[in-house]
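Shipment paperwork, digital attachment
Item: protein structure file
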Amino acid sequence: MTFRPDGTLTYLAPELGKTDARILMVYRTEHGFLITDQPSHPREDKSKYRVGDDGLLYLTKAGTTSRFVRVSTEHPISEEEKHTRKAIATQPSRPDEQLSKVWGTGVSLKEFRSPTRFRFWYPACWSQAFHEDGAPYVKGPADRSGILRIGTLIVEPKPRRFFGRKHLPDTNERLATLQAKSPDSRFVRLGERLTVYSIKGDPPFTHHQWYFGDGNVVIVATYSEDAEFSVTLEGRAEFEAVSWIIQTFNFE
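Attachment content:
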């Protein structure tokens, strides 16, 4: 099983009759339970989990416990899986009031839908693909266009006491915690969306990073651009498009 930070899970299933048979799933954790689902055949499955002192992953279901050995910290994604997940995630554009407000009218958009509770829209002239670790990204049409990478953090709720009652931190509290841990970051509002923003120079590139989210889903959007291209009119237009893409994120 390959668990990825964005909540996708690939299960190698030789019991299906092929040594390379794979089941594409999604997962989340809640209060000590691992909950998996298969988007093509929706049905949640719940197992109690723990990581032992021996480093093994223990999954218990119906009184039976299985042990798993962690063999790597990599998150490989095959070309076949990239193609399949892209086919599942990319849907025809469905403009609504929010999109019209952000992009205006008459702009052709494509939709990317993640299996982990969010979707966003990007210009139809841009391209979408996946990095080797499974994280999706979009890229502008120019040869020197920057890349907007979408990372996902699924934060397991940890209640804390607040005036004698259990309290789950809301999204703004999570962002405040992230901002406090990153002294070089600051709060930036893109339209109606509040983000934690930071910028880092890495010649010849510049990396812009935004944190935002909803509930226990935190998006890490990183836009890496060529520093020389960024000051051109085309480069500035693409950076503005990135801010519009972030504004269109919709959580389910």
